[in-house]
Amino acid sequence: AIGSTPKELSALIEGAEVFIGMDTGITHMACFFSKKTLVIAKNATANWLPFYNKNATVIFRFKEDEKSQTSEAYMRAHQNGRIRPFKDVPINEVCAELKKILN
């Protein structure tokens, strides 16, 4: 997508079955189109995650957690005012969420 115009990105996103991305502008673009989206919240800012898209699954893992989560309620309950409380989400957990989205 590097060097693509907004029009080209829009066409690419529109034609995708699902969009997978981090918390970036292009991911939010996919969410604005209401695409099925898997958002990996590694370096994300908690308050800006795209829970507004009913077709988005946001996967995150707090620094103290052993397992990743997808629940906004869980995130809000455990955020404790932190802005960037996340660590890496293991690829096997990302793949498991992607399977759920595709089924």
Given helix and strand content, the structural type is: alpha/beta
The low-confidence runs, each spanning 5 or more residues with pLDDT under 50, are none
* % residues in beta strands: 5-15%
**Annotation, overall tally of beta strands:** 3
The major β-sheet equals: 3 strands, parallel
* Count of alpha and pi helical runs: 4
- The overall pLDDT, averaged over residues, is 93
Describe this structure in words.
The longest helix has 12 residues, at 91-102. Helix 2 links the parallel strand 1 and strand 2. Strands 1-2-3 form a 3-stranded parallel beta sheet, with helices on both faces. It has 4 helices and 3 strands; from the N terminus they run H-E-H-E-E-H-H. The model has no long low-confidence stretch (mean pLDDT 93). The protein is globular and about 40 Å long. It has 103 residues and is of the alpha/beta class. The two termini are 26 Å apart.
What tags apply to this protein structure?
103 residues, globular, alpha/beta, single chain, 12% strand
Which secondary structure elements does this structure contain, and how are they paired or packed?
Blueprint: H1 6-15, E1 19-22, H2 25-32, E2 37-40, E3 56-59, H3 72-78, H4 91-102
Parallel strand pairs: 1-2, 2-3
